[in-house]
Write a structure and sequence with these properties.
- By secondary structure, the protein is α+β, with helices and mostly antiparallel strands.
- It has one domain.
- Helices cover 40% and strands 17% of the residues.
- It contains four helices and three strands, in the order H-H-H-E-E-H-E.
- It has a three-stranded antiparallel sheet.
- The mean pLDDT is 89.
Length: 174
């Protein structure tokens, strides 16, 4: 005996056994995207905070002349910076742009330019001497874990440049 389609649909209309599964299927994707977005945003904020603290501590060594007094100033700066990442992030993913200026009015920092691999190409390391104005920029390109969140927050390529900057006048250390 075959039931016509209308009778089957009429009987199923009153059946609500699968409604929870259907409702969950409709809500699950936006819910999990929102959770992933919150986790990813928190991770970026945490990474930026750690990077800011490490930059501040390493810049302090530039201000006091410790970095300038070393044989290889760039290596000494990295030596001061990397331990402050508290072992959470690989140090080779951070790029340093240290420039010296005559006074604060002369500061002109170019926007970072990145190559195809995401490495900044217009960085230099010139910590200056005593009583000079120095800018310390640390640049890190964060790659998003979730592609959709990365395209929404970082642009089309799923990355976001994090930049920490410190500006100071060095002490009369010489």
């Amino acid at each position: 005996m075959r039931f016509p389609l209308t009778k089957i649909l009429h009987r199923l209309r009153g059946d609500s056994r699968g409604s929870t599964a259907v409702e969950f299927a409709l809500v699950a994707l936006p819910f999990f995207l929102m959770i992933a977005g919150m986790v990813e945003t928190g991770y970026v904020a945490f990474k930026a905070a750690v990077m800011e603290g490490a930059t501040r501590e390493a810049a302090r060594q530039v201000r006091t002349g410790v970095v300038q007094g070393a044989g290889d100033a760039a290596a000494r700066f990295q030596q001061e910076f990397c331990p402050n990442l508290i072992g959470l992030f690989p140090c080779q993913d951070f790029y340093f742009d240290v420039r010296s200026f005559a006074d604060f009015a002369a500061i002109a920092l170019p926007a970072p330019v990145f190559d195809a691999a995401g490495i900044p190409t217009n960085v230099q390391f010139s910590p200056g001497g005593a009583n000079t104005v120095v800018t310390v920029r640390v640049i890190h390109v964060h790659s998003f874990i979730t592609p959709l969140i990365g395209s929404l927050m970082g642009g089309g390529d799923g990355t976001l440049p994090l930049i920490s900057t410190t500006v100071m006048r060095t002490e009369p250390f010489e």
